[in-house]
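Kindly review this protein for my students:
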Amino acid sequence: MATPSNHRSNGTHKNTPKTDRLLSINSSTKSSALKCKPAPPSQPVTALRRSSPASVGGSKDDPGVPGRVRVAVRLRPQNEEELASDADFADCVELQPELKRLKLRRNNWDSDTYEFDEILTEFSSQKRVYEVVAKPVVESVLDGYNGTVMAYGQTGTGKTYTLGRLGEEDTACRGIMVRAMEDILLDFSPDTDTISVSYLQLYMETIQDLLDPANDNILIVEDPKTGDVSLPGATQIEIRDQQSFMELLRLGEAHRFAANTKLNTESSRSHAILMVHVKRSVKGSVSETPVVKTFKPPVVRKGKLVVVDLAGSERIDKSGSEGHTLEEAKSINLSLSALGKCINALAENSSHVPVRDSKLTRLLRDSFGGTARTSLIVTIGPSPRHRGETASTIMFGQRAMKVENMLKIKEEFDYKSLSRRLDIQLDKLIADHERQQKAFEDEIERINVEAQNRISEAEKNYAGELERERLKYQKDYMESIKKLEEKWMLIQRKHGSERNKVEGKDDNKANEEVSVVSPIDEVAGVKKMLHNETVLRKAAEAKVNNLRNQIMQLKRSEAEGSSEVEKLRKMLEDEAREKAKLEQEITLLQSQLLQLSFEADETRRRLDRAGSGNLTSGLDSLMSQVRNPPPRDSENGDKSSIAKLFEQVGLQKILSLLEAEDSDVRVHAVKVVANLAAEVTNQEKIVEAGGLTSLLMLLRSSEDETIHRVAAGAIANLAMNETNQELIMAQGGIRLLSMTGANAEDPQTLRMVAGAIANLCGNDKLQMKLRDEGGIRALLGMVRCKHPDVLAQVARGIANFAKCESRASMQGTKTGQSLLIEDGALPWIVENANNEASTIRRHIELALCHLAQHEVNAKHMISGGALWELVRISRDCSREDIRTLAHRTLTSSPTFLAELRRLRVEY
């Protein structure tokens, strides 16, 4: 239970651990204030608490690992409408992320403090949200546990943005669904793992398949033994890559029901449920002991990730739902109420949990009090106008933090996979052995053939060389014989005597010895030459081997150089990626700095606009203090003084000062009334006391520009209420505002007047009267100022008027051409459809889409050039909801499609 002021805290124990170790048994030491004991299994109504079948890792009676539901709070930034309408008021929420606390203001001096597991400010990135909320759940699913990530909050607070954003234009905007699948695929093995996806919506208590719209009534099947819930009729598509998953998300989002309400242009009218079934195989192991060898088979782990994008809770008087949209809102609120009852019963450890009150609670029975690891993100807005819804959302998260699940791993032995893998491994080993045997035999055969070839070549070379040497020696021998014969004949001619014959015989003997010796010397010379040739050949071979070694070294050096170059290239690529990442971070910081500067300027302007008078009891002293207001310390102090002034003096005395003769008194009095009118609780009192009539009288009688500006601002605040809008119109307020806008030159005065008329443009019942009394022409006349703030309010008024016309045309209460087109607003709309200011451009784009939804306006829009702007919006608009609305409008209009075909534009 929350407590006011800063020194009191909520029911969450302060010693509760803030960061649970994933699946750690130490998480069982949570504070007892957060525990909810499981109900006895004998009571069927507590089926939400039942556990799954016993896993391989433990016995059937194993209770599992305790794991409390973790809750994070995310604050949505202020939108353009809130920046304009809540400019004079502080946000109703103050965040303290470093303490994991938030303060919800009751009023200007009192607040309630709450503690959560995580506090995410409006500046928290999508990546930060995923890491603190969903990543632990995804890791648990990969380990074989069930996990749930759910978003809860008021409509328009960013649930679908947080979970289902695709991030096609900017990857930093990717939601939890896309990032979760990226992490799952990173740890995915295509050979052993499987991932299948189902995408459903719970619409008007019927479960419909977003991947197969014809399958629109899926039944819930419960296991009577374990209590597990399954949807056998849902389509399951196997996923192999991120691209196919993105296509499935786009297909599902196209079939999801959405509607345009006052709180959200694309309000989800159904609960979206994404189911990701992950089946992973964990390899077995072999353990050897001296006695026996044990083989542990592989294990199959089956985890299921459930991402639930709940439709936003809404109050009918604020959302303006009518007809079928009203029935949708009732169904949404009933299912959320049933979920809240189950959370309350689990948080209080009640013996009865009304799980069967809704199909939503039946689908989520394992997420709360079951066996799944659950993370809940509650989304809230900063606007003080929705403080009641914000408080309800925070209390839902507080109660959910007290629910404790019993986590159980889902795994079983995979004997079939083991047998199949062993068969494949055996076949592979046999094939490898045969291939190696054949390669070995082929290598032996090759070596034998090569050896035979070398031997044959060597024998041939040896025989040839031997024959050449023999022929050479024979030739030399014959030449030597011939020379010896010539010498002998010469000697015979010189010596004719017998002595000479004897001497000749002796000489012949000597010459024969010489001739015998001479061939031996020649053979020795030939052998020496052969030896020298052999030595030279070996030296040449040594040089060749040396050159080969040098070439190998050069190749190794080249390879090392290439590896170094590759390393340097990778380092350069890493540096480039880091540089790009730093540039993105710098860009993000610059945008945040610009946003902070803008907010600071807005705060300064609000402080400059705020009144600073302080009235005390007694009319004389009241007028004195209005003339001499005390200095201001802060905006909250100013509002506090005005509240005290309201209580002490009374509204009638304050309103009486609006007719004072002193102009300064009137100025400060009207500022006080304007500040009081900004509070919803004061508006009815001001109107009943005649404050609205007095403010309109000031517009009619006063010539002071300041009085006109502040009075118009007060009327704009009062015009936020539908009943007050009718009173303003009945008292001629639109004519007075038009006259004030026509005579004013100050941009701030024009902004206030345009804001008041823009609020009146959002009332379906006042369309014709507002047009007849010149409201549209007054808005168009104020564009002469060209100030961005004024143009933004003019654009908002035209968008509100076009939306009401579109709604009336769809309901059949309006026929004929748009009043905006009749009053000449179309040229200005087309001219500013691509305005640089996002606040102007967004409203103009919405106005064009709403005008185009009525077929009778199509021809005028084509002739006025609006068709091309619609095509541009459907392709280039930064907001996905407006882009989708433009595309749907173009494709549903026969006139637009015919014109596009005539112009040969493919669409």
User: Anything to note?
Assistant: The longest strand covers residues 271-282.
